[in-house]
């Protein structure tokens, strides 16, 4: 048994840093607005804040007694949770650079109980030996294979069939297929903060001086022909893309360094990370569904991200799905299904929307765009050619989006499983065992009745209230299969 234990003292540093990051904008505004006489008020506020952090740390504790983990927390309102060890479904450990220096890790434990708040049931930063002690207790009281048993059996089980590692090439492809827009927004945000911190408009003054040189350069460039201007613009955009790609590659390399996926018996283990290391394990029976995510780039290159919905899994970032493999081509995807999660292999007839229903994927988005844009064009004064250009571009984009939705929508009916695909720019394909489906419903509008098609809503088991998957304009013959399953 384990006596009363608190978070490692380093957790107070994490809590302080996290709150500073979340309040950075208010801190900057406060520093700019504060007057000389209010410095003591600021110091008093910091002291009060640190006191709350210390009290909160002392009030958050746990102990193990009679095969049950008891967790207590709260300052003014005490709460107590009891976690039966035999009910534990997932073990998740994370180690950042400070944890490595202090020989600690964060241990997350969940049981799969319905949790509307989205909080992790057990989340403590502990010494490595304390975590190993808890894992040993869990292994002795459940059928979960923990990390220490993996080390013993590693040589016996490691083989090409049940071990997959992410390569340098995979990380490069992952970086290329991901959007870079958030990097540009991040750089803009950092510039805004830098300008506020330095003060006296030094950064803005430097930009203004630099802009004068750019204006001089522009005057000379404008005398050149249009081909040179286009070349310069394209070169600049390529430079920005390469720069953002390099930044993203470094981030993804650090995040997914040495990504390893392994199956031992009915246990699945996932480990990755260079600075912040993450490791979690679960049993194959705990998987509710498998989802293959594809953005437009991944669709063109026939690549996908593989995620799974696991009973009891809850990430620190409030994600309800676990990452099974960051990026896989068609061949690797089939290998992972065949050797890691072969219970979810779905073979059967694939049903797409009938060709005569393609108009159903286009007309609705056209009408919505016209309803929104026509009043704007009426009240906003602009040249007619600009108005027609904007309208044409939007209609072209929506035509592509609607057509992609038509092509990506399908359902494959296999033995004991169904595979559902939907989405336009982002395509999602989900494999669901029949027993993991909570309910399936369908509806038909008067316009769909003429096309003899239905919309289907499929509610899948999840940690909270279920994930609703919607399929549009599919053939009526699917109803017969659904009625046989008695889940409508």
UniProtKB/TrEMBL annotation:
Keywords: Membrane, Transmembrane, Transmembrane helix. It comes from the Bacteria. Residues 57-113, 256-340, 406-470 form the YdbS-like PH domain. The chain crosses the membrane at residues 12-31, 37-55, 171-194, 226-254, 361-379, 385-406. It holds the Pfam family bPH_2. This is Putative membrane protein.
């Amino acid at each position: 048994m384990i006596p009363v234990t608190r978070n490692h003292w380093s957790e107070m540093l994490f809590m302080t840093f996290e709150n500073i990051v979340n309040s950075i904008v208010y801190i900057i505004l406060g520093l700019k607005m504060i007057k000389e006489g209010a410095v003591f008020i600021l110091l008093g506020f910091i002291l009060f804040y640190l006191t709350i952090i210390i009290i909160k740390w002392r009030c958050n504790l746990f102990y193990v007694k009679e095969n049950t983990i008891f967790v207590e927390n709260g300052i003014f309102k005490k709460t107590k949770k009891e976690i039966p060890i035999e009910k534990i479904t997932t073990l998740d450990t994370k180690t950042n650079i400070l944890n490595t220096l202090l020989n600690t890790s964060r241990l997350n434990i969940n049981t799969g109980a319905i949790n509307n708040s989205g909080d992790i049931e057990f989340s403590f930063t502990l010494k490595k030996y304390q975590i190993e002690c808890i894992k040993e207790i869990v292994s002795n009281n459940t059928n979960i294979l923990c990390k220490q048993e993996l080390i013993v059996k590693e040589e016996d089980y490691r083989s090409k069939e049940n071990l997959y590692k992410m390569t340098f090439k995979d990380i490069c492809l992952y970086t290329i297929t991901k959007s870079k827009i958030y990097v540009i927004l991040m750089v803009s945000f950092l510039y805004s903060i830098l300008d506020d911190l330095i003060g006296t408009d030094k950064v803005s003054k430097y930009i203004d001086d630099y802009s004068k040189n750019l204006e001089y350069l522009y005057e000379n460039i404008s005398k050149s022909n249009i081909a040179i201007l286009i070349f310069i613009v394209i070169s600049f955009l390529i430079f920005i893309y390469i720069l953002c790609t390099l930044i993203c590659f470094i981030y993804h390399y650090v995040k997914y360094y040495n990504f390893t996926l392994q199956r031992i018996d009915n246990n699945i283990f996932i480990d990755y990370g260079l600075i912040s290391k993450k490791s979690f394990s679960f049993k194959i029976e705990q998987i509710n569904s498998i989802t293959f995510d594809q953005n437009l780039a991944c669709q063109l290159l026939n690549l996908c991200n593989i995620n799974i919905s696991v009973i009891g899994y809850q990430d620190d970032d409030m994600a309800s799905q676990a990452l099974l493999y960051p990026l896989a081509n068609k061949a690797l995807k089939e290998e992972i299904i065949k050797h890691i999660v072969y219970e979810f292999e779905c073979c059967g007839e694939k049903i797409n929307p009938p060709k005569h229903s393609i108009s159903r994927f286009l007309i609705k988005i056209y009408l919505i765009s016209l309803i929104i844009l026509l009043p704007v064009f009426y009240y906003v004064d602009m040249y007619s050619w600009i108005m027609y250009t904007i309208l044409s571009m939007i209609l072209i984009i929506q035509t592509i989006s609607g057509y992609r939705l038509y092509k990506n929508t399908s359902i494959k009916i296999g033995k004991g499983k169904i595979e559902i695909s939907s989405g336009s720019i982002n395509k999602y394909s989900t494999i669901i065992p029949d027993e993991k489906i909570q309910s399936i419903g369908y509806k038909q509008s008067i316009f769909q009745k003429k096309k003899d098609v239905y919309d289907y809503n499929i509610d899948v088991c999840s940690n909270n209230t279920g994930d609703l998957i919607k399929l549009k304009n599919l053939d009526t013959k699917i109803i017969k299969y659904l009625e046989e399953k008695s889940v409508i």
